[in-house]
Amino acid sequence: MRNTDPDLLLAVETYGRGARFFSARSLIAFVVVIVFALIGGTTWFLLDSDEPVETVFEAEPESFFTSSLTGDVAQGYDFYEGLEARPMPFCGSGANENCVVDGEIFWLNGEEIRIANIDAPQLEGRCLSETARAREARATLQQLLDNQPIELRGKGRDAFGRVLAEVHTSEGDVGRKMVRFNVAATWKGREEPVSTWCGG
Question: First CA to last CA across the chain, in angstroms?
Fold first, then answer.
């Protein structure tokens, strides 16, 4: 005979709801514990690992651009750095590390530098006179830089990605010396006209 006692039915129904409620809470708590355990384990593994963790937010500074005044890596290309003396031959067909290209461009520690405050004649000149003057300018720049400590005062980069810089040695401003020796012209924000190198 089926028991229809209302108090007993109420007790059974209430217990069933409570069991379902506690069962759902237990499942959520179990999942939360597992998630925290996974996060904690992963963090511990990364911190305990001997391998350095790479970060996408840190850019490797260009060691070339270091301020000799503060010793810090400079922002952008505004730098002032003393570089030790080294042979500076003419650049050949191989890899360029430290060499002279022409009267206004040279390589230093594998970085292409254009002297910012001069314009020199081009080796592939617009006339024979310009080509001859360009060879003289290249030879002069090579003599000024060869086995000299070099200091650079950065002015940014040009349209070809070369570092623009005023160049100094222990004997002074290289660009000004080039102008004084009449193998380059002071930079006026444009290339010198044909008449500068091909006239008279």
Answer: 131
